[in-house]
Specification:
- This is Hydrolase.
- The protein is an alpha/beta fold.
- It has a single domain, classed as Isochorismatase-like (Rossmann fold).
- α5 packs parallel to α6.
- The longest helix is centred in the N-terminal third of the chain and has 17 residues.
């Protein structure tokens, strides 16, 4: 059965400019919520064995390193620093993405109107199937964030959320290899849904 759903073996995750200096300017989403969603997405990729490419910019002059809480979730991933806003135009970043061998890219980062859009549009133009994890991206304003998503969508980029990525990759709670890891992420980061799962585990008996 060939379903039009994401599977981990086809995907790579790209974090672009998940840095505090840029988070200061985010007005489209609560900054802590954005960080939590990004951490949940990173941990999801780890659970499902999806390769992660991370890139930062202007670390020494403005933006700082990758946000520490996110870096702790992916301690084995070293961010590739660059000068330009479009990560696809950086040879090291582009080669790292190509090197994953994956044809579907999930993109998360800041700012939606710039570094996220530029990478997504450029990779899509090169034939990649690109999915922007909209609730793990931050824009300067809610309107400019939404307009950037619409611009990408018009160019064929798909939109998704971190919880849809996790549920789409898991898809069946009897898949035991990833069950514990995926469920732990849901319980910690998925609000009422996670509370319900924890309640069912602790209170509802077979």
């Amino acid at each position: 059965m060939n379903l039009p759903l994401l599977v981990p073996g086809d995907c790579a995750l790209v974090f672009v400019d998940q840095q505090a200096g840029l988070a200061f300017g985010v007005g489209s989403i609560d900054r802590q919520v954005l960080l939590n969603h990004s951490i949940a997405l990173a941990r999801t990729a780890k659970v499902f064995g999806v390769p992660i490419v991370a890139s930062t910019s202007a670390t020494k002059v403005y933006s700082g390193p990758m946000m520490p809480a996110l870096q702790r979730a992916i301690p084995d991933v070293a961010a590739i620093d660059r000068r330009n806003m479009n990560a696809w135009e950086d040879d090291a970043v582009r080669e790292a993405i190509i090197g994953t061998g994956r044809g579907k890219l999930l993109v998360s980062g800041m700012l939606t109107e710039a570094c996220v859009s530029f990478l997504a549009l450029s990779a899509a133009n090169e034939g990649y199937e690109v999915f922007v994890v909209g609730d793990a991206c931050g824009g300067l304003t809610a309107q400019s964030h939404e307009l950037a998503l619409l611009r990408m969508q018009a160019a064929g980029v798909r939109m998704t959320s971190w919880i849809q990525v996790l549920l789409e990759w898991q898809r069946d709670w009897t898949r035991h290899d990833t069950y514990d890891g995926a469920r732990a992420i849901v319980e910690e980061f998925a609000g009422g849904y996670g509370i319900g799962l924890a309640y069912a585990r602790d209170m509802v008996k077979p």
